[in-house]
Structure formats: C-alpha cells, structure tokens
C-alpha cells in the first residue's frame, strides 16, 4: 500500500535517468499519471450515470410513452430527430462559398484578414501556453515564485469561453435545424478534453518546438483512426507524406543532446503525453466527421462539444476541490489571470477564424496558413524562451514542413482531377 505512491513518483526519474524537476514533484500526487486517473474518475462520475439514464429511457421506449415538460429536453438529449443529411464532400465542413461578383482586391483583403486572424490567435495562444505551463508567477529576489500546475483548469477556461462564443453566434445567426442526439457530442468532448489536458501537461516535460512537430505527425494516427472509425482508404501519396513526417520528427527528437537543460530535454513522460494527445485528438476529429452526417453547422458542433466539455471539467474540478484552489491562484497573481483569459480568447477566436477561412477559401488555403503558423510558432518559441535547435534538428523540421506542403499540393491536385471526371464517375478515394 505504501510502496505504490513511491513507485509512481519515481517513474519519471527511472524513465529519463535525470533529476526530477522539483517544482513538479512536490508530492507524488503531482505526478501526471495520478492526475490523469483522478480527472478520469471525475469524468466517469458524470458519464456513468448519464449512460445509465440513456439506456433507461431507450428501454422504456420513452419517445412514444414520455410526457410532461421534460419530454422535449429528454428527446433532444437522448433521441434527437434521428434525421441524417447526405454526407458532404469534404466530410466535416460546409461547402465553400464561391465568390460572386467580388473584386480581386476584396478577395485579397479577405484572405489577408483570415491569415492575420489565424496567425495572431494561434501564435499568441502558443506563446502564452508555454509561458503559463513552464514559468513561475510572483517571483521576487527572495521568493522563487510558484508555478500553476492544474492543466484541467486551463482546459475549463478555454471551453467556457468557446461555449459562450458559439452559443451567442448560434443565437444571433440562422443555423440549420439540429437533429443529432445531444449525448453523442459527449464522446468528442471527452476525447477533446483529454487531448487538451495532455497537450498542456506535456509542456512540463518537453519543449514547445518538440510539441509543435509532434502535432504535425498526428497525420499518421488520424489516418489509422480514419480506417478504424470511418472505414476510409488512402492514396499512396498520403502514406508517403506520413512517412516523411515521421522521419523528420524522428530526426528532430534524436538530435537532442543528453546534456541539454531540463526545459528542452524530451523525457519519457513527455513522449507518453504527446502520444496521448495525438491519439485522443485523432479520435475527436474522426468522431466529429461521423457526427456531421447529421445536418449541422461547424458552430453548432463547437457549441455541442463545449457544452459537455464545460460540464465534465467543472464537475471534475469541484469534486477535487481544485476549482477554488485555481481561483485563489488567480486572485494571488493578476498576471496569470490576464494570461489565462487571453489564452481562452485566442482559442475561441481562432476556432471562428478556422470556420470562416475554410468557408471562404477552402481547406487547402487554410492548411497552408496553419502550416506556416507552426513554423512561426517554433521560431517565436526559440526566440522568446531560448530553445536551441541543432543542424540535424533543423533538417528534421524542414523535412516535416516539406511533407506538409507536399500533402496540400497533392490533395488540391486530387480535388481538381475529381472535378474533371465525367458525370456518373467518382474518384476511388475520398480525400
């Protein structure tokens, strides 16, 4: 009974052969694996009763026998309208709005607006994310300050603002009639929460440039999840670019010298957390793709997922007593409050820019903008936080971004070829 906490606390040291970061290991309860299971237990305390209620209403055939003021709410949450729309060509996004009677100058202005919005939102988000998770607050000449440790609270802050923004947008604009059972959003919500938690938590163990490159390599698990969840097939060039991305990321990771500082060393815990982020995020995108078979807009998807995200995170935080603790931290450090709020604003605005950019210019232009953003994010992190990159690591980064641009080019060629097919013929692969 007493050995288990000691073993859990020693795992990071055993995996890396280095000293444990003192700020992260005040007690064995601060170890990420323990926190992960505590958070998961909090989510389970909401998911399990919800699952039992859904099964109860389905067994009772509530759709035919139910009555009363709760009937519309239960019908929407458990059954929905059960009317599915035809799956759209791009799988998860509305058809791009073709410009009508729009001047070239106006289109260029729109493109610059979208690019600037995406870059500003996500570059600021990345810089703040690293600041919050890797630096102390309240440091003085005599006091080293304290770090903020609860990644789940940051996830909650992001989701509550995204929920508010999406709700206002849906209320103020015309949206398609909603038909999906609300409980189906909970699957994407859980995986989205866990992926975001892993993303924040990983910064305690690895550098931000490493995390950015790992995100680029999520193409591979996304393809694997696509095969498992959506039964998709892929072209040879998709496998080729995925392999190139893997090679580039491996070059960057293996170029890390053993005598690097704690902030830049890639530890075993960091690798596991990144793998968790990639796996959970891959499931999220594929589950959302399946949900889009119902007639809904991306903002409705954003609203539905964030409803459950807020419910799960606030429930777990209250059960642990971590919500009040985090609010007290905010009260002690006004700088952290500003950073956390700005982090949430950038996350919510970035999602809206994503929807608008894809609607106006298509997925290919959006992917190019976001690929450039990843490159700028690595450069900014190195300049602001002093990360160093070796020659081999730089070559690895170049290989990754070359593969990403090759992927965008090949995908655009495939779409152009599919448009030229005679009526009645469809391409073998749906990209």
UniProtKB/TrEMBL annotation:
Subcellular location field: Membrane
Keyword set, alphabetical order: Membrane, Signal, Transmembrane, Transmembrane helix, Transport
Pfam families for the chain: UAA (PF08449)
SUPFAM superfamilies: Multidrug resistance efflux transporter EmrE (SSF103481)
GO MF entry, a single one: 3'-phosphoadenosine 5'-phosphosulfate transmembrane transporter activity
GO CC, any one term: endoplasmic reticulum membrane
InterPro entries in alphabetical order: EmrE-like, SCL35B1-4/HUT1
Transmembrane intervals: 33-57, 108-128, 153-172, 236-255, 261-280, 301-318, 338-356, 363-386, 392-410
Lipid bilayer topology: Multi-pass membrane protein
Annotated signal peptide: 1-17
PANTHER family: ADENOSINE 3'-PHOSPHO 5'-PHOSPHOSULFATE TRANSPORTER 1, SOLUTE CARRIER FAMILY 35 MEMBER B
Family: Belongs to the nucleotide-sugar transporter family. SLC35B subfamily.
Protein name: Adenosine 3'-phospho 5'-phosphosulfate transporter 1
Organism in which the protein naturally occurs: Sterrhoptilus dennistouni
